[in-house]
Design brief:
Pfam families: DUF6281 (PF19797). The chain is of the alpha+beta class and about 120 residues long. The chain contains 2 helices and 6 strands.
Length: about 120
């Protein structure tokens, strides 16, 4: 699987928390790509190049209502399969079923990506 992104985009995403949550009103934004797995929340890290590992359990994609209060209920929470990433502890990063082209990094890693994740982002540069 090969995806390339700039480190600047990655750092901006992690620094901002990638957690703009919709919920109605004029300021509604698109829901962030996040998942909850094994007691941790993970945020999407676009542009990493990685090898998908084995299934490690079930992750939950939280509910999302980014419709701006137009009466559309949005999307409810749903369970998906969580997969390991070759060479990275699942406590640091996972990939979820249905979106196998986006690495999810534990939110506690914001500001300073672990070296094993930096290597995944830097492969395509």
């Amino acid at each position: 699987m090969r995806i390339v992104a700039s480190c600047v985009a990655v750092v901006l995403c992690l620094a901002s928390g990638c957690s703009l949550a919709g919920g109605g009103g004029e300021g509604a934004a698109s829901c962030a790509f996040v998942a909850d797995y094994d007691g941790r929340r993970y945020s999407g890290l676009y542009g990493a190049e990685f090898t998908l590992g084995e299934a490690v359990g079930t992750a939950v994609l939280p509910a999302c209502d980014d419709t701006g209060g137009d009466g559309d209920p949005g999307v409810g929470a749903r369970e998906v399969t969580a997969y390991a990433v070759a060479g990275v502890d699942p406590a640091v990063a996972i990939v979820v079923g249905g979106v196998a082209d986006t690495l999810l990094v534990v939110q506690g890693a914001r500001g300073q990506l672990p070296p094993e994740v930096v290597r995944l982002v830097g492969r395509g540069e």
